[in-house]
Amino acid sequence: MASCSHWWHAPVYFIASAVLAFIAISTALNSPPSKATRPTRPLSNHISLNASRTLRESGFNIMATLLLISPEMFFSSPNTTIFAIKDSSLVNTSIPPWFLKNLLKYHTSPMKLSMEDVFKKPQGQLLPNTC
């Protein structure tokens, strides 16, 4: 029987899923009910699926999973740019769920930026984020 060198992926994904479930439930419980809730548009679901697939293909598996589970954390406006966090930066952390949620918001900008736009920015310039 061949040994799997990626045995540690299962516990990482399980922990990430548990943290995300906690964030989703606590957000839902703490959010006031809105009078006019818009149904989720199929287009935003399609964009979320494509973005998640692209992230996963580039090795950002945790960010891809987070995007599928809770796209509303990332898509605060129609023109959103997500700055992905490396899996290795999230795997061995024991941060509380509320901090993880804020960290993800910090890596999401409500501006639509191309790679060219990002590279034109002077180094050290802050971009608006959803925090």
UniProtKB/TrEMBL annotation:
Domain of life assignment: Eukaryota
Alphabetic keyword roster: Membrane, Transmembrane, Transmembrane helix
Residues annotated as transmembrane: 12-31
Protein name: FAS1 domain-containing protein
Organism, scientific name: Salix viminalis
